[in-house]
Write a structure and sequence with these properties.
- By secondary structure, the chain is an all-alpha fold.
- The chain has a single domain, classed as Hypothetical protein af1432 (Orthogonal Bundle).
- Helix 9 crosses helix 10.
- The chain is globular, with a radius of gyration of 16 Å.
- The protein starts with 32 loop residues before the first helix and ends in a 6-residue tail after the last helix.
């Protein structure tokens, strides 16, 4: 399965960048529906049934902006990347995975490992070959905890995983996970998460979404 080396960040888009509200372009096509059906129980954990579809929509925008990327690999991986939250101790998800030094929390390593288990359970039955499945798992295993992306596809999955936070739905959910009000959380997104984005397309989308979300949620007033 061909993957592309990651260029220096932030790398410029070679295709169109769509910065309109994400709800205007929900995930396209029905080709991934068999995977969705296979992981319904795992989507009920940690609001994955909101996070994963929105992240997939962002991933599709990013693969349009970077047509040289393997879009199938990016789309399948982003769909599965956080399913592992459905197989870890739910009581530890918020207490450890979203507090303190959350980036290094053991529960985050566990959810990555379980995500790979799920990918290896689900994808062979749906006709995906071993090489493709291992590429999916190579990205899932470390998407939260590994300090660097290993390919363009890995980078786009990472960016799509983060972009959902900038939409008003992401702010509404994730601010509560971190115990922050929407105003404080949105400011944290701009200061800490935008600089982590690897693609120029993701940065443009993030700024546009955050501007809209802050205006909608009146974060300048509701402090």
């Amino acid at each position: 399965m061909l993957t592309h080396p990651i260029p220096p960040a932030p790398f410029a888009a070679t295709g169109p960048i769509d910065t309109s509200p994400i709800q205007l372009t929900p995930p396209s096509g029905l080709d991934l529906d068999p995977i969705w059906v296979s992981v319904v129980p795992e989507t009920r954990a940690r609001s994955n049934d909101i996070h994963l579809p929105i992240s997939l929509a962002y991933a599709e925008r990013l693969t349009a902006a970077y047509p040289e990327a393997n879009a199938e690999l990016v789309r399948v991986t982003i769909l599965l990347h956080d399913t592992g939250w459905g197989r870890v101790d739910e009581s530890r998800i918020l207490s450890e995975g979203f507090s303190g030094d959350w980036r290094k929390a053991d529960i985050r390593f566990q959810h990555e490992a379980q995500g790979c288990v799920i990918a290896r359970e689900v994808l062979p039955k749906l006709g995906y070959n071993d090489e493709f499945i291992e590429e999916v798992c190579a990205i899932i295993d470390g998407h939260d905890t590994r300090p660097v992306a290993r390919s363009l596809e890995d980078a786009l999955v990472r960016d799509a995983d983060r972009l959902w936070r900038f939409d008003h739905a992401g702010i509404a959910l994730a601010s509560g996970w971190f115990g922050l009000d929407p105003s404080t959380y949105s400011e944290r997104l701009r200061a800490e998460i935008v600089p982590e984005l690897l693609s120029d397309a993701a940065k443009q989308i993030a700024h546009a979404d955050l501007d809209r979300s802050q205006a909608l949620l009146k974060t300048a007033v509701l402090r």
